[in-house]
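Section 5.1 Outputs to date
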Amino acid sequence: MEINALVKTLTRLVGFDTVSSHSNIELIQWVAERLKALGFETMVQPGSETGKANLFATIGPADKPGVMLAGHSDVVPVAGQQWTSDPFVLTRRDDRLYGRGSADMKGFIACVLEMAPRFAAAKLVQPVHIALSYNEETNMDGMRVLTKYLAQSPVRPVACVIGEPTSMQVVVANKGAAIFNCRVQGFSVHSSLRDQGVSAVEVAAEVICYVNRLQERLLGAGRNDGFEFPHTSVHVGRIEGGTAHNITARECTFLLEIRALPGVRAAQLLEDIKNHCQQVILPPLLRISKECSIEFETIADTPGLDEGGNRELADVFMPLCGCRDPHRVSFGTEGGILQGIGVPTIVCGPGEIRVAHQPDEYVEISQLEACMAFLESLCKRLKTTPYH
């Protein structure tokens, strides 16, 4: 493998500012043209919002289900972070490559693109699909749009590898990722008359206290020791409300996150919280003012990846990357969405999740080399033995 060519490709990918709130079209079109020139059958699929698109490309026999290599094209924001170099200019320091998305997950995409000519030149007995999605870092809408297409296709992928940063270890399960926005409306009065008003901030605090009690119950409700935190988790990550110290807050909002173990539905836990709000918290507030309310909006609710059905796939792919035992992770991926349409999925990619989303995000060159070796082994296999 020529590392300089790989670094050049990653440099180009990092140079596209594909923060989730921005368009990813330029990156998608650049990748599509590159793959099309190699003979890949490419489809640029418009997203459900302006300026967004997925890419689905195939090389090999079109009448057979193939192995899909999937990645998301979007990255998280850099605003407010202290970087020591331009986050959208790949910077090499020793054996590390720094830049937004270098680990999560443009490093994997760069490896796949560098491997693409070899996939194209090989006489594959089973096709390789390359899929790039949008908005994975927000609501995972891109993969939802793509799976609707794949579910209706006459030939859908028989397996998928998502290249999230796992230090090239094979992951067979991940927790679900759900985000809900809670909006509390109170009744605003001067604080000297607080008994005649309702503070939305205090009501929100009461809801959050119940969320904390729910977490305590979840500690005894079930565990999966394969995960670093072996329970379903609930967490409030942001809160905003109020106008002044001497006014009861009319509005307060907070973001609730639920990371559910595979098989646990975040929506069911949310119903528990909503029922408590309706039956316990709201009634006394409504006696003060009919304006009071507690509402929840679903921002994203992505199912976890369940290892059931993935172990056979893992057993085939682990020898290709030198992984001895399958792993489980608590961060969310698009795997559960693919599993939902019957595509067995594992997660395996270069880089470490601990540096993802952080300032001075980086990927080690040795990790990219390990990923290229894995893809080489996959190419050799698909020249002789298809995965069924």
